[in-house]
Amino acid sequence: MELVTPSIGLVVWSTLSFLILMFLLTKFAWKPITAALKEREDSIEGALKQAEAARDQMQLLKNDNERLLNEARAERDRLLKEASEMKDQILAKAKSDAKTEGDKMIIAAKDAIEREKLNAMNELKSQVATLSIDMAEKLLRKQLADRGQQEAFVNDNLNSISLN
Q1: Would the pTM of this model clear 0.70, i.e. be above it?
Q2: Which of 10, 22, 101, 164 would give a disulfide with 6, using CB separation of 3.0 to 4.6 Å?
């Protein structure tokens, strides 16, 4: 049974070596290990806080981007509306100017046509008068070929003219 029960010397030396080992571990190993664990815990906690802060900042940036995007959309819509209104005004002005210019051209053309018509009428009257005189002259020459007929014609015309 000696194998199963330890002797008192073995127990004392085992206890003593355990206590020395505990002292050495406490003095040199536990403090650096706990300090390293504490430092790691602090760095993880700091990283979590930084991640939370970054997430909050990202949310703020996202909200800010949404606001800017909405403002840009509103500005784009306003500019498109202004451009559409401007286009309508320009088209209306162009139509108005074209109508005014067209009316002026129509009036000028009517005036030109009327002047040409009057000129043509005057020229036609002049030609008709010339032809009438030529025909009357030829007719009178033919009828008044002798001197007696000429005197009778002159006397008849003098008698028909009344002096006022």
Answers
A1: no
A2: 10
Which tens digit of pLDDT belongs to each residue from 115-127? 999 999 999 989 8
What was the pLDDT predicted at 88? Answer: 94
- Dist. CA 98–CA 93, nearest whole Å: 8
Burial 70-99 (b: 16+ CB within 10 A, else e): eeeeeeeeeeeeeeeeeeeeeeeeeeeeee
Question: What residues contact residue 149 under an 8 Å CB cut-off, 6+ apart?
Answer: 143
Residue 156 tokens read as: 């008849």
Q: Nearest 5°: CA angle at 23, between 18 and 29?
A: 110
For residues 142 and 119, what is the distance between their CA atoms, to the nearest angstrom? 34
CB 119 within 8 A of CB 125: no
**Residue 147 pLDDT grade (very low, low, confident, very high; cuts 50, 70, 90):** confident
Q: Tokens in use for 76? A: 């784009």
Tell me if 153 sits within 8 A of 144, measured CB to CB. Answer: yes
Going by C-alpha positions, the residue among 164, 163, 142 that lies closest to residue 153 is 142
**Residue 59 amino acid letter:** Q
Q: Fill in the DSSP letter of residue 5.
A: S
